[in-house]
């Protein structure tokens, strides 16, 4: 049986068959199949030019980054669930009743009577 050729350079070195198969899957945008076939573990093909291996390694790195981002999102979601964090807001312009300070962890204040054109009257705006 002839090893699969690299879809980019045509290399058909037997030792590079796993890398060639992964590059073919990626060329078809079959990322899940490439992951199942070992995208995150493959070393590349020594017989292919550097550009082919760079494509393979870039795809693997992109998947690692995406998986890491997904894991960070899951961890954050779990942390927030453990804290039972709630996000509330108070429109001071509509209510004079503010929340009890002992129940507040973070305050973000937006707005005010000034604008970017008030630098003469409010000098600290020029920061």
Order of helices and strands, N to C?
HHH
Distance between the termini: 70 Å
Strand content: under 5%
What is the overall silhouette?
A: elongated
Q: Structural class of the helices, strands and pairings?
A: mainly alpha
Query: How many separate helices?
Result: 3
Q: Kindly state the mean pLDDT as a whole number? A: 87
Q: Specify Rg, calculated over alpha carbons.
A: 27 Å
Give the number of DSSP strands.
0
| Parts with pLDDT < 50 across at least 5 consecutive residues | none
Classify the helix fraction into a percent range: 40-55%
Quick one: biggest sheet? none
What does this structure look like?
- Helix 1 crosses helix 3 (about 50-85).
- The relative contact order is 0.09.
- The chain has about 130 residues and is mainly alpha-helical.
- The protein is elongated and about 75 Å long.
- Helix content is about 40%, strand content about 0%.
- The chain has helices at about 15-25, 30-35, 50-85.
Brief synopsis:
This protein has three helices and no strands. The protein is mainly α.
Distinctive features:
0% strand; single chain; mainly alpha; elongated; 40% helix; 3 helices; 127 residues
Give the topology, please.
Layout: H1 17-27, H2 31-36, H3 50-83
Helix pairs in contact: 1-3
């Amino acid at each position: 049986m002839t090893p699969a050729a690299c879809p980019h350079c045509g290399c058909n070195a037997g030792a590079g068959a796993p890398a060639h198969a992964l590059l073919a899957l990626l060329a078809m945008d079959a990322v899940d199949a490439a992951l199942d076939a070992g995208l995150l573990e493959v070393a590349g093909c020594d017989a292919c030019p550097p550009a082919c291996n760079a494509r393979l390694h870039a795809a693997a790195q992109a998947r690692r980054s995406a998986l890491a981002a997904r894991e960070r999102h899951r961890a954050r979601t779990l942390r927030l669930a453990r804290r039972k964090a709630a996000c509330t807001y108070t429109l001071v312009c509509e209510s004079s009743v503010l929340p009890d300070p002992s129940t507040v962890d973070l305050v973000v204040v937006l707005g005010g009577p000034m604008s970017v054109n008030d630098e003469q009257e409010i000098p600290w705006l020029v920061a």
